[in-house]
């Protein structure tokens, strides 16, 4: 059973968790789930989720997948999903989309599949069912891909979405609107 698996690896990240008295996979999930939502000072350093006591969907789930890999915890996949972010499924974004006459913006979101079940521990009140029917595309990625690859993939997807859907705003404006949504999420959690 994955949930009670002990963290026993000798790497720096696992040792950091053990110093925090986090010694099982389930304890790690519970710890990550209650950390505040926020971007870390360096997307590539997963230790910062623990040290800065916060993280985004990307950093939190990448850390979990990295720890699973290091501790030989199987059946854990890191998923990059793009979903139709709107005020109904992501209420803390506020009225930004509505103010800009957009029904939704494709948003990149990271989560895990554990034994095939989608699991989102971005916050203690994350509820994947709210976005489940809004998923546009999913792909499995490695933890190190949450920094550059995820951002580039998201930007390229948005550029194609703008053209395909004849959106009357340019990429820079759409990205700015998206950034305001993320800022609102950070402030409203």
Please give a structural write-up.
The protein is of the alpha+beta class. It has one domain (1-189). It contains 8 helices and 4 strands, in the order ααααβαββαβαα. It has helices spanning 12-19, 25-34, 47-51, 57-70, 96-99, 129-132, 148-164, 171-187, and strands at 76-85, 105-114, 117-119, 135-141. A 4-stranded antiparallel beta sheet has the order 3-2-1-4. The longest helix has 17 residues, at 148-164. The protein is elongated.
Task: Produce the secondary structure layout.
Layout: H1 12-19, H2 25-34, H3 47-51, H4 57-70, E1 76-85, H5 96-99, E2 105-114, E3 117-119, H6 129-132, E4 135-141, H7 148-164, H8 171-187
Antiparallel strand pairs: 1-2, 1-4, 2-3
List keywords for this structure.
4-stranded antiparallel sheet, 189 residues
Mean pLDDT: 93
Number of individual domains:
1
Radius of gyration using CA atoms only: 17 Å
Strand content: 15-25%
Query: Number of helical segments?
Result: 8
User: What strand line-up does the widest sheet have?
Assistant: 3-2-1-4
Taking pLDDT < 50 over at least 5 consecutive residues as the criterion, the unreliable ranges are none
The H-and-E topology, N to C, reads as: HHHHEHEEHEHH
Q: In percent, how helical is the residue content?
A: 40-55%
- Shape designation: elongated
- How many angstroms does the end-to-end distance come to? 32 Å
Structural class: alpha+beta
């Amino acid at each position: 059973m994955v949930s009670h698996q002990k963290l026993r690896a000798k790497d720096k990240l696992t040792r950091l968790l053990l110093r925090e008295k986090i010694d099982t996979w389930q304890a790690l999930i519970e710890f990550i789930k209650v950390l505040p939502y926020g971007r870390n000072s360096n997307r590539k350093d997963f230790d910062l989720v623990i040290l800065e006591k916060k993280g985004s969907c990307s950093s939190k789930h990448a850390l979990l997948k990295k720890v699973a890999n290091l501790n030989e915890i199987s059946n854990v996949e890191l998923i990059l999903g793009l979903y139709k972010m709107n005020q109904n499924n992501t209420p803390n974004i506020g009225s930004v989309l509505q103010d800009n006459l957009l029904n939704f913006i494709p948003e990149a979101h990271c989560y895990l599949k554990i034994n095939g079940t989608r699991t989102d521990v971005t916050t203690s009140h994350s509820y994947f069912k709210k976005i489940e029917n809004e998923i546009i595309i999913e792909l499995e990625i490695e933890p190190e891909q949450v920094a550059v690859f995820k951002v580039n993939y998201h930007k390229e997807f948005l550029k194609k979405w703008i053209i395909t859907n004849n959106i009357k705003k340019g990429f820079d404006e759409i990205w700015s609107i998206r950034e305001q949504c993320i800022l609102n999420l950070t402030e409203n959690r």
